[in-house]
Fold each of these.
Amino acid sequence: VALVVLDGRSETDPFAGVRYWERALRQARSLQGSTAIPLKKFLVAARTDRSGIGVSRERIQALCQDLGFDGYFETSAKEGRQIAELKQTIQESILWDKLPTVSSSRLFRDMKAFLLDTKKTGRQMSTVENLYDLFYHTRHKYLHKKDLREQFETCIGRVESADLIKRLSFGKLVLLQPELLDAYASALVNAVRDEPDGLGSIDEGRVRYPVLYVISIFR
Amino acid sequence: MALSATNNLFDIFLLAVLWQHISWFVVIPFLSGIMIMMGIGFEWLARQKQWREEFYSYTNCYQLAAHKLQTRQLSWSPNGHWLASSFSMIDLNKADISLLNCQTRAVHRFSSASFPEILMPCLTWSQDGRILAFPGFDDANIHLFDTYTERIRSLDGQTGSVSALAFADEGRLLISLSTSSNTPISIWRVDTTERVSTFSQRGLRGNFAFYPGSRFFVHPKLAMFAVTGSVLALVWDIDTDVLLDRPLIRDTVHYANAKVVLVGDSGVGKSGLSLVLTDQHYRETDSSHARHVWTLSRHEVSLQKRQKEAREILLWDLAGQPGVSPTSFISTKL
């Protein structure tokens, strides 16, 4: 299920972004072969509390039909308008029978849940040892397992492959908030764009500084 | 000369008529033999053409889909309806498993995040050609593709990566060999995707050891399999009924995740929307410039045989970055 968010207030062409993202979704789908699970797409107008939609309903209907959207919602996160309806629709449009299922062990499930919980506490970085000790001392029922450590490292790999955490190549560190990397990269892109020396160049010191910043969080 | 030639021809004609009269039953089979030969020839030509079409439609798919691919292994299903192939992208260190349905020409593709250098992906068909088993690399241990339902099931819960797979006892059991030092051999039930048994290295006799290229040899009829090792080969007898009658190991959990992606230009209000969709309080957010993952909902359903499946919907809030191609990123998330 994909939700494409529309900026209803845009003066110029509110549909430009929608078309762009719809095309991106279509390209991504074409990489999956001809028999991928059908994708449901919904068009969502956000922040309708601030101002009304600047375009007529007919144009939105035409766009939905044109690009093959399965529905349209005018939401407001602030006032909670149409949020329940949207959520309901999302839940109903998932084809559970077509989705891949995973059979795993209870231990793996607990380890993954532990890693995600640690991520949710907002902790940004940790060593594998620290995480393992924490798991070992909080989950007593697994103390008797012999290859617990090996299983724990496997689980870190599983969660990493879902892009939820990231192992760093130095110092056995686990970055629990890989979003930071995105933030860093996009800050770089913006910095390059704003650079007074001309487009496409950047002062080396400015590139290095955030790396030091990330490491200093850990220390 | 001319006369004698016509005479000769007349003689041959007479002889032919005479011979025809005597033995119609020789000529007719002879003619039909030619017909059959021609028929076979045409069919052969047709097959050649069909094969060529298949080949081109297949290669075209890959030329369109990705480049710098190297085919590692090809494998037809025993009933001939499917062709499975594994590809690896050397420079990206990724592997792809693709399946072609020979009748509908539909292609299924599965990508894995990483690709171990030593281990070849081993594509293994069940004897009836219904299920393809192939190792997962980072996301799970083993994937099963059911060609009837066209659905993937994954088996997980084991350390190490899988180096060999084999179906045993008419496809009821799946045996896997992994690089894990603790439990190198696992036996799984195919119908319920549960692990029914494991063998540990300590339980093995003598100085037997597996090596990365160890292979299985399953007996075609009896429930037996043999494994090659570094010093000697071992043969196991499996008692399928005992394994299948065992009370299900309570250890196994089943789950399925659905992904919802939230896309749109930056500053249209995606972050606020994702907060309220996941039952959090609305607050003003800065331009987030980073993706976030939230749990939208979670529930459990009961399947047959007292199994339970946890179903979770995850909301991926992808940061809007106009100008940066999001295709590759989204494709791994859908």
Amino acid sequence: MKPQSKLEKYLKQASRGIWGKKKLEVISELRGNIESRVWMLEQQGFDGLKALEMALDELGKPSEINAGMVKVHAMPKMFKAFVVAAMLSSLALVNVNLGTAQVTGASELPVDQCSISIFSDNSMGVTLMQKADKSTACIGFWFKISDLRNVLEPLGVTYDRQPSRVSPIQNHVFTFPDNHKLVINPAATFQMGKNVSDPIKTNDGSDADNIPGKHLFSAISEMIVPTKIEGFETPKITIGSISFTFGTAEKPINALSLYSQVFQKNILWQYFPIKSANELLVSNTPGGLQFDNAAKYNHYLKVKDSKVGSIYVMVYRSQLNYFTSDFPSKTVIEPYKSVDASPVFKTGYLIYRTPMNKLEYATNPEKLEQFKANSETGKVMLMRFNGTLNNNAKSFEIVPANQITEVKHPGR
Amino acid sequence: VKKHATRALKNIVLKGIHMIDANLMKGNLDLILLAILEPSEMYGLEITKEVLERTDGYFALKEGTLYPALHRLEKAGFIAGTFKYLPRGGSPVKFYALTSTGSKELETRRQAFHNFTHAVQSLLGES
């Protein structure tokens, strides 16, 4: 049995007989604790599967946890009788999908369009993969609203279309338990009040349901509940106590997949809202690009025109010549040029230090202009590697402009 | 036969001791958990480790007992749980912290326990 199925089976058994939001809470709590144990065991040198087996073993039988939990959270008898009666009287078939559900709508885009020009506007993350028939394809994080609804609605989330403040196209609004809202902008080409498109045009332009992943990620970042996006090709999204994952259209078969499964779980996408002008969220980045929430109040950036905005970071694997992400936008106010393995740039600009060892991860020197700032959304977005990707790599840093005194630029 | 009988007897004795410990643990689980959470908030795995460390391994808290107990205490309003992310990444864990009601409850139970142990010690001639 695969580790993931083993874990899900355990969680399912442990939460049997508990209902609704409480069930999700129990599952989330156990999952968090199991992951903590697995993480500790992995630090001790156990591989993932062994660590999971040991963690579950240490945790005890799911039936024991379940027995105790049911005593605390069982439905009152009267209510239970009412629910059973209601279910019996209903002819509707209800498919309740609890725990970590999967959205299957990540779209495959034609390989001949697998270029930065195509993906830069709309795609959240794109990777080149080799399929079972040895052909290659691009996978972008597009998803279908209908898939998202299929996953979220059984979990008590409601869906609606509501007017947008800036666009004639209505937003997709998911209302979570506790009334938290996930508001997804449907427009692929987004300008204030004009030039919007709905449906989003994807590979064949016929699917009214497709949304670029970045719109979802951006919407998630606006929520005030704890949220998290992990992974690359199959990102796992957690909103409060609800988790779901994206599936790729096809799984890659070999190294063309940018990350192995092990690494995927160590990648975290994060948006960092900027709370005040000239605030930049930066931190040291041992072993890869990392942001530290705690650092945000101590680091500042004054950009050229005094605006602060989103910074999109692109990382690619140089030898294989494909990239994980790029986030340029039409609303860019100032392209921040970065320098590969260079320590300095110019006051008012970001310095973007990359690992010297290009066998691993680096910024893409040919795509420097993609590393940009955006004043409209007021956010910084970075791909955060939560873990050591390359022990030999030098730190990957973004340095606050106010710490820069020297002006140099190799090659200029 | 003698060997088996000895082993069986040993098992019964060990089981008996274990049951006494388990009953003691069970009877005072709420007090133990409230006391563990008094200085700072913790999540499940931390609580298990903390109990083990602070009792030098005497009490090995099983999760089968721990989580239901935490949820019961939360339901009673003695502790409050919040999901938080850890630096390791991954899924959030549920941290539990003592509420003001929980603090009062801890004091009440602590006092009751001291009274009880004092009385038992007096009976055993140890005080």
